[in-house]
Amino acid sequence: MKRAWLGLVLLLCAGAGAAQEVASVGAGAVLRGLDKINGQARDLDMSNGEVTEYGRLTIDLAQCRYPEGNPAGDAYAFLTIRETASGRELFSGWMLASSPALNPLEHPRYDIWVLRCKI
């Protein structure tokens, strides 16, 4: 019985290690912003390290990454989003293109999500 559990644990650990991929750093990211009040969406083409304003938000893109050898694959970007007037931080962390609801910006008026990395 102990051998069966040990084998299962080793198999799961090996699978988790194999699933990890090396990431490449893109030149920037394409984000999409949605103003939920007027229904207007706009794409934001940003470079790494760039800060831009969208409505009443200030968005800082630190870096965008994608799976090695697959630039069309799942992008993830490190963003810091603040209210422009007050400077209050609303979001700071990684957003994933394939799972925008995983780490969402929670704001009553705006939605921001990652579309892809720029190469």
Characterization of this structure:
It is a single chain. The chain is an alpha+beta fold and 119 residues long. The chain has one domain (22-118). Helix content is 15%, strand content 50%. It contains one helix and eight strands. It has one helix spanning 2-19, and strands at 23-25, 28-35, 40-47, 51-54, 57-67, 76-83, 89-96, 110-118. The strands form two sheets. Strands 1, 4, 5, 6 and 7 form a five-stranded antiparallel beta sheet that branches. A three-stranded antiparallel beta sheet has the order 3-2-8, with no helix packed on it. The longest helix is centred in the first third of the chain and has 18 residues, at 2-19. The radius of gyration is 18 Å and the shape is globular. Mean pLDDT is 83; it is low at 1-20.
What's the topology here?
Elements: H1 2-19, E1 23-25, E2 28-35, E3 40-47, E4 51-54, E5 57-67, E6 76-83, E7 89-96, E8 110-118
Antiparallel strand pairs: 1-5, 2-3, 2-8, 4-5, 5-6, 6-7
Keywords: Signal
InterPro entries: DUF2155 (IPR019225)
Pfam families: DUF2155
Cα distance spanning the termini: 51 Å
Shape: globular
Number of helices: 1
**What oligomeric state is this?**
single chain
Fraction in beta strands? over 45%
- SSE pattern: HEEEEEEEE
Radius of gyration, in Å, reads 18 Å
Give me the count of strands. 8
Structural class: alpha+beta
Give the helix proportion (percent range).
10-25%
The low-pLDDT segments are 1-20
- Largest sheet, if any? 5 strands, antiparallel
Number of discrete domains: 1
